[in-house]
Amino acid sequence: MRAFLLALALLALPLSGFAQPAGPAAVNVVSEATVKAAIKDYLVQKAAPLNADITVKKINYQGDLKLPAGKVTFDVVAPERWEGYGPASVALMVRVDDQVKKNQTVLVEVEALAEMVVAARTLERGEVLSASDLAIVKRDLAQVQGRYFNNIDEAVGLRVKSTLRANAPIRKDNLEKVPIVKSGQVVTIVAENDVVRITATGRAKGAGASGDLITVQNLSSQKEIAARVIDATTVKVDF
Asked: Which keywords does this chain's UniProt record carry (predicted)?
């Protein structure tokens, strides 16, 4: 009986003096879907100023995250010059209670469909465009790298620099102004301000469209100066 009572007394003693096995550390599991959703939200916000229909086509991320317990936050950073469409490599940083626990690069691709001017038919080099040559459709901004016309009137009257196939988006560098002053042509040089107006006869040393700055030679002084094309016979010197 004494042995039994002694055993009971030992069981009742506090255990603070004895080593106890540590329990498993708390783990916060963040699903792959949650990580992708955070990246997608960032991409959509990045592309919002484009005024286009946005579709996130690829987020090259896989796997759930096992993180310590705490508040989980995501930071996604795109390359400085990336405009929000096409492929890119973004940096993903995952923090727990403001401490970085994961930092990796993720490949993404965003489609941004915007209304832009396209060729209504095959356009040959040297053609001067009219409204009937053009149409407005939605195309991916990645096809034109942002340099596109969104208004037909902006392209009318410009000249095709190289052949464009039907339905192809028209980039701004596909077209050029039509020169109205030819190289070697005699022009009137005008120099004026609010007080005085001076004119002289000159010869164009290069071709130019309306608004272009070209070099002209004053036929009286033989001096060459820069002048802006006003119309088919007139150039103006600013002073």
From this structure: Bacterial flagellum biogenesis, Cell projection, Cilium, Flagellum, Periplasm, Signal
Q: Are strands 197-204 and 213-218 parallel, antiparallel or unpaired?
A: antiparallel
Q: Which of 17-26, 160-169, 205-214 has the lowest mean pLDDT?
A: 17-26
C-alpha dihedral, 129 to 132 to 138 to 141, nearest 10°: 0
In sequence order, the β-bridge partners of residue 116 are: 137
pLDDT by residue (tens digit) across 160-183?
Answer: 999 999 999 999 999 999 999 999
What is the total residue count of the chain? Answer: 239
Please give the model's pTM, rounded to 2 decimal places. 0.67
Q: What is the pLDDT of residue 195?
A: 87
- What span, in angstroms and rounded, lies between the C-alpha atoms of 111 and 117? 18
Q: Please state, in angstroms and rounded to a whole number, the distance separating the CA atoms of residues 91 and 78.
A: 6
Is 170 in a helix, a strand, or coil? coil
Residue 53 CB neighbour total at 10 angstroms: 13
- What amino acid is encoded at 23 in this protein? G
